[in-house]
């Protein structure tokens, strides 16, 4: 069955890590052809990279991407977003836009009402109706089709706009629609979440090598163990606490390890870490100066 994306052009403003993961997912999971995707980035290296990796056209002109796309993904850093939007909205190709466009921001911390305000402040009432701001918070496992995205729907978003946005996010993996007020928490949990697992994996590999296992073997043992544990969480027919108890023989090896983790305040530490990420996401909306 043809996808509703099959007639759409998708433009990326910013062609960094997350944009590349999304392009990969769109190319491989949505049947989107290379000529349906366009990207703008000031960095020559990034432009050449996406052009050669995905056979897509890459340019320096953000307004050209806006002009030629039905769906525009704002994929620059949150600190860069205000100036990118300001510049874009001054361009005649923006102000004289005649077609309805979804403008999807994936930037952490920038709330939908702020996004909407900046995208539409300079437009006439009619032109405003053609700009549909949506916020999606993806994560990098999108690169392998195992992404988790949060989506918040603003006022004025029609059902057909939602269907398009859901199909796009769905090409990356699973999608969860949440109220805007929870997007900072979702960012902290699933947007940043892969990094927590990578840190745990790094620590497990390091522990394995410290105990005499080769790096290669420690990597294989760690990856397959995490994969197996996640498969059990998905298909093991029990909640995570029960699954953990099944590994933990009384007085055995797992109990010895978990006692050390609890002694170090592991659960509390994770809660504090995710809360710090949520709070940082909230801070990012306060328009900080760009950091290098
Ligand atoms: N990396 C991740 O895991 C996730 C990132 N995000 C969000 O995605 C956005 C991008 O993050 P990353 O891809 O990690 O950053 P990145 O630094 O890899 O990519 C940003 C790109 O924007 C380009 N850029 C800078 N100024 C520009 C301009 N004026 N016009 C067009 N492009 C410009 C940069 O050259 C760079 O290639 C951020 O807002 C971040 O919050 C969201 C979810 C997950
Ligand atoms: O670290 C960040 O700010 C971005 C947002 C979620 C994942 N990476």
From TrEMBL:
SUPFAM superfamilies: 6-phosphogluconate dehydrogenase C-terminal domain-like (SSF48179), NAD(P)-binding Rossmann-fold domains (SSF51735). Transmembrane segments: none annotated. The gene is proC. It comes from the Bacteria. One of its GO terms (molecular function) is pyrroline-5-carboxylate reductase activity. The lineage of its organism: Bacteria, Pseudomonadati, Thermodesulfobacteriota, Desulfobacteria, Desulfobacterales. Catalyzes the reduction of 1-pyrroline-5-carboxylate (PCA) to L-proline. Residues 180-284 form the Pyrroline-5-carboxylate reductase dimerisation domain. Pathway: Amino-acid biosynthesis; L-proline biosynthesis; L-proline from L-glutamate 5-semialdehyde: step 1/1. It catalyses: L-proline + NAD(+) = (S)-1-pyrroline-5-carboxylate + NADH + 2 H(+); L-proline + NADP(+) = (S)-1-pyrroline-5-carboxylate + NADPH + 2 H(+). This is Pyrroline-5-carboxylate reductase. It comes from Desulfobotulus pelophilus. Belongs to the pyrroline-5-carboxylate reductase family. It is found in: Cytoplasm. Residues 9-109 form the Pyrroline-5-carboxylate reductase catalytic N-terminal domain. Keywords: Amino-acid biosynthesis, Cytoplasm, NADP, Oxidoreductase, Proline biosynthesis. Gene3D superfamilies: NAD(P)-binding Rossmann-like Domain, ProC C-terminal domain-like. Its EC number is 1.5.1.2.
